[in-house]
TrEMBL record:
This is Thioredoxin reductase (NADPH). SUPFAM superfamilies: cAMP-binding domain-like (SSF51206), FAD/NAD(P)-binding domain (SSF51905). Signal peptide: none annotated. The lineage of its organism: Bacteria, Pseudomonadati, Pseudomonadota, Gammaproteobacteria, Lysobacterales. It comes from Luteibacter jiangsuensis. CDD domains: CAP_ED (cd00038). Pfam families: cNMP_binding, Pyr_redox_2. Its EC number is 1.8.1.9. GO terms for molecular function: thioredoxin-disulfide reductase (NADPH) activity.
Length: 565
């Protein structure tokens, strides 16, 4: 007898496929139009953008994907009171599945903009719909429905990079691991390709991309959004870490035309944390990816747009509106900018470090990396909370976690609750006054040499995975000379601009450009403080936009006769 995994969202039928009551259905009628279908009709197809939301009044709507032969495989059926859609209803991305109305079906068809108005105005309906949309995306991810297939070695850097990108962006996918020599030969023969072309991403229509960059993959999957050259946004948030997402939520919820530009995925460095346990309101902890995912959805709910896999390359700030130039040649114009680009990971200066970067050397400890370490020894480098969280998380599956720190202990840099767990764990060994000096291996990392800084003793550990969490440097190169930068590269804020006192602690030396979170000079490098700064900065954005409107009105008014006399 088949059993249902209790962790599978499809087991939570009442939440993933809820029914609106009659009063809610009547309310939904105010936001859409009713339609009848007398023959099987396709409501939307995979690859379409900005599809409608359908509430079923009578009849049946089937949701399906296509198998390798192009035949439909139905995995959800909606009837009276139920509704279609998942998270792509909230953005301009390409939808992942198909939906068709069977003969004799009557629906309420609600356009995307009307759906957003309904979710904002009808909180009882919004709670039911939002929970269902989130669970449906989780169901697609866990079951590999509506996604893509990656063919490549599970430990190869290029394969891992694609998996990380799709995982952090919540895109369903499955992996065919070619690590085994026999499996690789069999797969390559079946695909008619060579090992040099791996990894390969295979799409539902059986087309494929060989060794794509994340930007190429994002474009092919429809994760990116096109910008209207004629549109000037109220505010552009650069960076989708905790501070950037908080800024987006508050800006969009307060009616500002908001776009977030992110080079990789929502969450920033916090998004790679296995579990954050000291964030207010989550007594049992929450993973960084889950926290970022909720904030991302929340921002979209209020109307913020998110441009993924698009790094900002430069900023033209000599005149208003400001002009951001993106990777790929696109430009975005805006009246205000919130700089929330955080920081990039620092690297070790050890022999052959770069050779194993991305395959053996990691900067995040998520369930994906955890699977690579099953039953093996691993090394975590660093003495901060990120390193402590990673060590505790990896100790669940690894045979031993070696925590390597240059200092004499952890008390000055790590929260006490993590220090206590590390001290009481039989699977974590702390190595103080230590540093990695050499990485060893042929095709894959096989061992790491660590040296005691006080004695000079060198010990070689047989490990295939090292997690480097030694801090980060600010991502501010793209700002050029537009704003003041301190000696370490962080954005200076709260200082006078052109002789005028700063109106906000987040104001930079350029009017209308603000900085929050880890990228800001003097900021507290914590998720909670980043969220606070991102939410608080929007008041200053409003004040800047008000000053622009005031100046525009003043410039448009004719001079008074008295002034002319």
């Amino acid at each position: 007898m088949n059993t249902i995994d209790p962790n599978d969202p499809y087991a939570r039928t009442a939440q993933i496929f809820p029914r609106l009551d009659e009063s809610m259905i009547d309310t939904a009628r105010h936001y859409g139009v009713e339609q009848d279908f007398q023959a099987d009709t396709l409501l939307y197809a995979r690859g379409e953008r900005a599809v409608c939301f359908f509430v079923i009044v009578a009849g049946t709507v089937e949701v399906f994907d296509l198998d390798a032969s192009g035949q439909p495989v139905v995995f959800a059926t909606h009837t009276h009171g139920q509704f279609t859609g998942e998270l792509d209803l909230l953005n301009q991305r390409e939808v992942l599945v198909y939906a068709r109305a069977m003969a004799g079906t009557r629906v309420i068809k609600i356009e995307r903009d009307a759906l957003k108005r309904m979710l904002a105005a009808e909180p009882d309906i919004a709670e039911i719909v939002m929970r269902a949309l989130i669970l449906r995306r989780v169901g697609l991810i866990q079951n590999g429905t509506g996604g893509v297939l990656i063919v490549g070695g599970a430990h190869e850097a290029a394969t891992l990079a694609l998996q990380r990108f799709l995982t952090r962006n919540g895109y369903p996918h499955r992996l065919i691991d070619t690590s085994d020599a026999g499996a690789e030969d069999q797969v390559l023969e079946g695909m008619g390709t060579t090992a040099e072309r791996l990894p390969v991403v295979i799409f539902p229509d059986q087309s494929a991309l060989s060794r794509p960059s994340t930007a190429e993959l994002a474009d092919r999957l429809g994760l990116t959004e096109a910008f209207d050259d004629a549109l000037v946004y109220d505010v552009v948030v650069v960076g989708a870490g905790p501070s950037g997402l908080a800024a987006a939520v508050y800006a969009a919820s307060e009616g500002l035309n908001t776009v977030v530009i992110e080079g990789l995925a929502p969450g920033g460095q916090a998004g790679t944390s296995s579990r954050i346990e000291n964030y207010l309101g989550f007594p049992t902890g929450i993973s960084g990816q889950a926290l970022a995912g909720r904030a991302h959805i929340q921002a979209q709910k209020f109307g913020a747009r998110l441009a993924i896999s698009r790094f900002v390359r430069s900023l033209e700030c000599d005149e208003q509106p400001y002009r951001l130039k993106l990777e790929g040649g696109e430009e975005v114009r805006t009246h205000a900018i919130v700089v929330a680009t955080g920081a990039r990971y620092r690297k070790l200066s050890a022999v052959d470090y770069e050779r194993f970067e991305g395959s053996g050397v990691h900067y995040a400890a998520t369930p994906m990396e955890g699977k690579l370490c099953q039953g093996q020894e691993v090394i975590v480098v660093g003495g901060g909370n990120s390193a402590g969280q990673a060590a505790v998380f990896l100790s669940r599956t690894a045979s031993m976690v070696h925590l390597v720190v240059r200092a004499g202990g952890l008390a000055a840099t790590m929260s006490n609750y993590l220090i206590e767990r590390i001290a009481h764990s039989t699977r974590i060994t702390l190595h103080v006054h230590s540093e990695i000096v050499r990485f060893e291996g042929d095709e894959h990392l096989e061992s790491v040499a660590c040296r005691r800084r006080d004695t000079g003793e060198v010990v070689v550990h047989p490990v295939g995975n090292v997690f480097v969490m030694i801090g980060a440097d600010p991502n501010t190169d793209w700002l050029g000379d537009c704003v003041g930068i301190d000696a370490k590269g962080f954005v200076e804020t709260g200082r006078a601009c052109a002789g005028i006192p700063a109106t906000s602690p987040y104001a930079t030396s350029r009017p209308g450009i603000f900085a929050v979170g880890d990228v800001r000079s003097g900021s507290v490098k914590r998720v909670a403080s980043g969220v606070g700064e991102g939410s608080a900065v929007i008041q200053a954005v409003h004040e800047h936009l008000a000053s622009i409107r005031h100046d525009s009105l003043a410039a448009a008014e004719p001079a008074s006769p008295i002034a002319m006399a």
